[in-house]
Structure to design on (127 residues):
């Protein structure tokens, strides 16, 4: 189909369609990973804030156990699959602060988020 003057319009359109489909497949997977990761991290953040307020209102410690595939508190387990989580376990004191400043690292595919817990006020920040 190629003559001495170049490619036909049909050949160029075919190449553009193939490249567009490949781009769509690659970018949709990354968007899905980003969405799933962000949704789980936001859910974990809400659970941590709930446990902080419960420790403050009940005036007792609340332990948070961080595992690779789940985060466990006293009455709730959050399964994290297909994500992976790394970071130390900790507890909320009866005053609502945390036992140590720490960062929880969440990864899924090529995407990564960090959940930073600060001493003092016990603020939780997603980065």
């Amino acid at each position: 189909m190629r003559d001495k003057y170049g490619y036909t319009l049909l050949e160029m359109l075919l190449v553009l369609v193939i490249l567009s489909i490949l781009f769509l497949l690659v970018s949709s997977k990354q968007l899905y990973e980003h969405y799933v990761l962000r949704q789980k991290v936001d859910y974990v953040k809400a659970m941590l804030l709930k446990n902080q307020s419960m420790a403050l209102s009940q005036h007792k410690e609340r332990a948070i156990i961080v595992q690779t595939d789940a985060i466990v508190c006293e009455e709730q387990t959050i399964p994290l699959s297909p994500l992976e989580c790394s970071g130390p376990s900790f507890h909320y004191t009866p005053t609502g602060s945390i036992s140590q400043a720490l960062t929880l690292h969440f990864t899924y595919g090529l995407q990564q988020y960090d959940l930073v817990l600060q001493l003092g006020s016990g603020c939780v920040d997603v980065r």
